[in-house]
Structure formats: structure tokens, C-alpha cells
Amino acid sequence: MIRLRQLTKRYGSTTAVSDLSFDVSPGVVTGFLGPNGAGKTTTMRMILGLDAPTSGTATVRGRRYADLPWPMREVGALLDARAVHPRRSVLGHLLCLARSNRIPRGRVEEVIGLVGLSRIADRPAGALSLGMSQRLGIAAALLGDPAVLVFDEPVNGLDPEGVRWIRGLMRDLAAEGRTVLVSSHLMSEMALTADHLVVIGRGRLLADTGLDAFVRPGPRDTVLVRTADAGELAHRLREAGAAVRQEAEDTLVVTGMAGPEVGKVAMVHGVVLHELTPHRTSLEEAYMELTRTSVEFGGPEGER
Amino acid sequence: MTAAGLADVLRAEWTKFRTIRATVGTLAGAFAAAVCYGVLFGSANGRAYLAAAPGDQAAFDPMETAFRAHMLAQLLVSAVGVLTVTSEYAAGTMPASVTAVPRRGRLLAGKAAVVALVMLPCGPLIALGSFLTSQAMLAARGAPSLALTDPGVPGALAGAGLYLVLIGLYGVAMGFLLRRTAGAVALGSFLLLLPAMAPILPGRAAEWVLTYWPTTAGARLFTSGPLSGDLPAEAGLAVLTATVLAMLLAALALFRTRDV
């Protein structure tokens, strides 16, 4: 598992990551979500020991990354799939990494097969399409059969087939009991892959919650009601404790009361309804709401 | 099997070294340069010998010609060292390499060791290329020349080979310090060739550079004469070695503290 405690990274006066604490548990896919520039990549680079935190700690299975005796056998990482030497072959690229952690050549070939690159193992890595590069990056992450996996925006720029393949892979890896941390700036993507969400904005933690809890019926949910008798119904609903906004002459938007209750109030007072539509906040809306707030109020220290 | 060790890093770095054409090609270029410039220096100095006055002819030392080409080939050897490091920064693979080997001292040591191990046989080979071609051309012109078995020659060849091992490490340090191929090769070459500018420096400075500049000091392993100072060979080796070590330590300090 991955554990972050008060993790902070400053570049001069800019704070990229601020006082970030959360755990990433095994057995589930944890989506690491935030708008571009929120500090996701910087956080992942600190987990992997590439960037030194200004303060705070990031540990993997209880150790700092740099103290892991066999880093690639414990943590697999995909940061930038295009980061390959263009003239080196697919096999050569993976061999260079495998050797440093005494991973046998047989495993390298096995992983190449696993990601479906066997036929082009001798091709220069620079000649691969983005989708193929992504597969190569994932092969590199899987080389050491690690229990912890960290993927930075793995589906960026992939075609639908590639996206589906990566989604399936993430879920399979988590189902095998591994710890999987996947970053994305797209809620729609995480909605399909993640079980757990960690949302950051401007380097700060905004939410650390299960996917279903993220969209639990809440105060933002609304019910849209259409009736010829909008004035009367609005009055009765307010009496019953709901907040009502009149959208049009015959349309009300009700917050703070669920659909069935709204219908009940209408029946009791003999109001004929033309339409009653509960509107549950979508993941996307919840996410937008959350990050918009962070954009408006999150940066008093002049963060980017 | 307690932890990934230096031997594993060394194998990985060797795989990196041999799977990049730029490093291998530059190394081959160093050998080619030694041979080609050996021919040119040999025939030019042979002609100069024939045109010289009898007194100058008597003072002619073929050893002075033997490693002129070697001193040019060193630029490419330094570039080999640079490339083992900067090719990673250029391709963006340094983060992956550091993730695979997070103990950065070990990663730096692995790269340095591969360059040293490669130059251990290649250094003397390049020296041999420079020596054999230049002496053959001198002989062809009828100027005095040296054979491999002449006194002092085996030692000079070994010294010239060792010199290139250190220059390769110098390149590695430059690569870590500057991280960009162009910058590291340009500055690295400028500093290696600085003694060539000695004639335009004021007398005391020129004398100091010719005596103590690490390349001329180190070249005392295989040259004598006007283009090198009068340090004993051991002292010259010590100056060059200490310089390269200091640069590697500075590179290590930077590499350890900098974000990748």
C-alpha cells in the first residue's frame, strides 16, 4: 500500500502539492483525480522518489521508495510512455530495465506477450504508435510482477480499443490484490475504472472517498416539477421544508426533498403534476463542483 | 538475493551502452580519428623532418608525433562518456532509470564503471591506432620512427590507454553536471583542448596551464616535449585522476539532490 503524510512540494514561491495525506489500499483501483496542473504527477513522482518532498513523507509498503531493496519487483510505474530511447528496440528497452533488478529475460518476453507486443519486439521503440508506446510502458511497469502499481494518465491519447484494454487491465490487477493508483483528469474515465477516488485541486486534498459515496444523494440533488399550479405547490413545498426555485411559469426546481416526498406534498394539496423528474448529481457534476470550489477559494498563497 | 546490487546495475548499464548506436558509433569514431589523424600527423611531421636543418633533424623525437592523433581522439572518448548520461536525459528515460535504481550513487557508479570497463581495452587500442599509423608514415617518409618494442613505447601505450579511461569518466561527470549533450560535449571539448591555447596566454599562465592543466598533466603518461609540462608522469596522473574524481563527486552531489 501507499501512504502519504503531509506531503508538500514547493518550487520557490509556488506550491505544487500541499499537505497531502491519504492511503492507497490494495485490492481496489484508486483513481487519482484532479484538473490539469493539480499536482497529480508531482505527487506520483514523489511517491517514486524522483522528486524530493519539501516536507512530509510518501512510503510504499512502509518504506521510502529509495529504500526498497528490489524497487521494480515491488512497484511498477508508468509515468511517460513516450520516454524511450527512439533507436532502442522494444525488447532492448525492457531488458535495460529488467537487468537492473535481476529480472530474467524469460519474464521480459512473457510481459511483452502479455501486452501484445511480441510481433514487434525487435522494432525500434521510437517507431511505435502512441497506443503501442503505452503498452510498452505498461509492460515495463509489470516487469517485476509488483504488488503496487502507479499509472500516470495511462489512457491519454489512446483509441477506444486501447482505453478498454487498460481499463480491464487495471481492474484485473486490483482483483489480484494489488494496489493500483491511476491518475486522470477525466471523471468520466475514473467512473468506469476506479473503486475509490482521491481528488486534488491546486495540490490540496479535496476528497478521499469511495466512488458511490462520491455521488451519494446529497444536498445538490434536485427534483424538477412541472405543474399548472406552480405558485401553490412552491408555497406548500417551502412549508414542508424544501428549497424551491421557479424556473419558468410552470416549472419548479426543488432541492432538499426527494422525488417521492414532492409527489406526496402535491397529492395532499390536490396539485396536478405534469412532470416529476428527480435529478441525481452526476459524478461529473460532483467533480466539477468540487474542483471549481478549489479553483475559486483554494489558492490564497498565489499558487498556480 | 537480498537487494539489487552494483553488479545488476552494471549489467543494465552495459545493456544500455551497447543498445545505443550513438555511443558505440562515437567510440568507433574515436578509433577512426586516431587512425586517420595518425596518418596525417605522421606524414606531415615526416615532411617537416625532411625539410628541417640538420641540427633540428638530430633533435627530432618521433614520440612527439606518436600521440598527436590520440589527443584529438580524446574528444570523442569524452563524448562517449557524456552520451551514456545525456542520452537518457534527451530521451526522457532518466526517470525510468532512477525508478529502477533509486539509489542514485549506485546508478552513477554503474554508468562510470561501464565507461571505464569499455575504455580499459579500447583506450590502449586507440593509442595503438595513433601510434602505429603515425610511426608507419614517419618511416615511409624516411624520418626516424619507433617500433612497439622500443624502450618506453609499451609504457607510453599503456599510459595513453589509462589516460582515455580517465577522459571517459570525465565525460560521464560532464554529462551528469550539464545534462544536455550539446552543452556537455562543447564545454567538455573546450576544457580538454584549453592547453592548445597556451601560446596565446601570458607567459606565466601559459607555463602553468602546460604544467598543471589536467589534460597536459595527464598526458605526461605518454608524452614529453614542448606540448607538455615537466611534471613527473606519476604526478601528472595524480592531477588528472584527482580532477576527474572531484568532478564525479560534484556530479554525484548534484544528481542526488536534484529532482530527476
Summarize this structure as a short list of keywords or feature phrases:
heterodimer; A: 304 residues; alpha/beta; 4-stranded antiparallel beta sheet; 36% helix; 28% strand; disordered C terminus; B: 260 residues; mainly alpha; 12 helices
Give the SSE layout:
The complex is a heterodimer of chains A (304) and B (260).
Chain A: E1 2-11, E2 14-24, E3 29-33, H1 40-47, E4 55-60, H2 71-74, E5 75-78, H3 90-100, H4 105-114, H5 130-142, E6 148-152, H6 160-175, E7 179-184, H7 187-193, E8 196-201, E9 204-210, H8 211-214, E10 222-227, H9 230-239, E11 243-248, E12 251-255, H10 259-268, E13 273-279, H11 283-297
Parallel strand pairs in A: 3-7, 3-8, 5-6, 6-7
Antiparallel strand pairs in A: 1-2, 1-4, 8-9, 10-12, 10-13, 11-12
Helix pairs in contact in A: 3-4, 4-5
Chain B: H1 6-18, H2 21-51, H3 54-59, H4 62-66, H5 68-91, H6 94-100, H7 104-141, H8 153-178, H9 181-193, H10 203-212, H11 214-218, H12 233-257
Helix pairs in contact in B: 1-7, 2-5, 2-7, 5-7, 5-8, 5-9, 7-8, 8-9, 8-12
Report on this model:
- Chain A has 11 helices and 13 strands.
- Chain A has 304 residues and is α/β, with parallel strands linked by helices.
- A 6-stranded mixed beta sheet of chain A has the order 5-6-7-3-8-9, with helices on both faces.
- In chain A, strand 11 and strand 12 form a beta hairpin.
- With 260 residues, chain B is mostly helical.
- The mean pLDDT of chain B is 94.
